[in-house]
Amino acid sequence: MSRGGQDKDRADGPERRCIATGETQPASGLIRFVVGPEGQVVPDLAGKLPGRGIWVASEPAALEKAAKKGLFARAAKAPVTVPDDLPTLIEQMLARRVVELISLARKSGSAVSGYEKVKDWLGREDAVVLIQAEDGSSRGKSKLSTPYGGKYIGWLTADELGLAFGREKVIHAALGAGGLTKRVVEEAQRLKGLRVGRTDAATAAGAAEAAKAAGGGRGRRKG
User: What span is annotated as the signal peptide, if there is one (predicted)?
Assistant: First the structure.
């Protein structure tokens, strides 16, 4: 079965326009910001802070562009102060939020961890979301499949999952149906945009450097 979590799987809902890309998309794929009383740009992950929302796609490039090009000030129509290294800050906040939501699901009986328990839930079709640590063994993870019609989350670390379940490390976990599960999936999707986007950017940068080095080498040989 294919791993879930593709962009097309994002929950339907209200749409907002990203100030960096200019694209309109479901709010579940963007980060809301508001301007605080002292002109500081404040991330509003829960979407509950008062004030006019400023929306940015949950991607490193979009957040960097919004911060460095003065787009927050343009959207707010006033001078603002933007936190340093905004993509990293948002990634940390989102990871903490996802971990806390999974922990709440565990306490309510809607989440389990450990290979055997997860396998049992999958076999009984009690699981609707399969979660596996990104730094877990590929061979071990391949033994479990995403629930039919369900979701897959694979971009949390074993340490982060461990925090959610009160253990040192967790590789396999599952979520059952419930109100918290939808919130976990939505917030995890935002986190994916940052983590996968960061990896893609690093890969592209590495490829560009390699191509540049190769081109330079060819030039020297011709000389």
Answer: none
